[in-house]
Input
Amino acid sequence: MKLLCTADLHLGRSMPFPEYVSQDAHGPSRAWRLICDLAVEEGVDGLLIAGDAIDSEKSYVEGMAIFRQGLRKLQAAGIPVILTAGNHDWNLLAEAAMGFPGVVPLGLSGRWETHSLGDVTIIGWSFPGRHHRESPLVGFPETLPARAVGLLHCDLAGGESLYAPVGRGELEAVPVAKWVLGHMHSPMDTDRFFYPGSPLGLNAGETGPRSVVMLDTEGMTCRRIPLAVLEWKLVSITEDDLLDPGERIASAVERVLGAESESELTGFRVLFQGRTARSRDFRNAAAVLDNTDFPGFFIQQAIDETKPLLDIEALAKGKKMSSLLAVELLAMDSGSEDYSVGIELLEELLEREQGLED
Output
């Protein structure tokens, strides 16, 4: 039996895109459509969703409409959907499933509930409220059929948490052959459990490729299937990335980031770093790049962390405050702690002086 597994779709959430990037074409709704298409194409025996299919009550109208559109396609193909509620959609799943006989929310009362799918038993628990401070494994059934798959939205960190804290040892101690988990947006795989991860990064901090998981219940084996809707990346650019000293910063950025773009759309956070004689050029570029329309990618944020080249001997010949400090630095041991502090002060002075000139 083949079960397609996902979690943390957060349908209805508005992505941090520039205005010229389509939410529908590159956001959660696109990922959901691809998942439904994949389920039909692969002829899966069921789709499992481990919580947070819909983002929240605030995005209820849009998120619910998108979700039910996909459920109609799956129902027409005869594909059952088994799902649990997470902390975001704890009060929305019952309504989402209305009118869809093949859509089965599990454990909506905050109690473990089972559903048979062929020769496999799916056991699931849903958030009974926005927060749940106790381990949901308290009160877990002592016995289950051999081919049991668990469906749970939880915080694997254990200990104190508002989001159903569970310890790894707890998961491995109960009679479940494989756990499908939600809540953690980054993918994670172990022998006994896995987090599919959100099918696309929901903000610039959620970097890396995204996927869904195909679970073969015959041997309880998993295969990740990439979803190339959107990928976030953090890229550092220095003066060494310029083809020549005179290359425009924007041209260098387009060239470097274009080579890094592997998904349909890539969102970048760009850090300009290192010492350079073109610190001002980098700073000016950082101020405008997030509004530039590039083919195949966009810049969500550009941050200038460059520092000017320090020719201390040349600075010492000047007539500014920074020149006086440069004279003092020339008389110091370059390996001393005072020298390092002096360099930091000099950089601050130069930035202030440059700001006055601008």
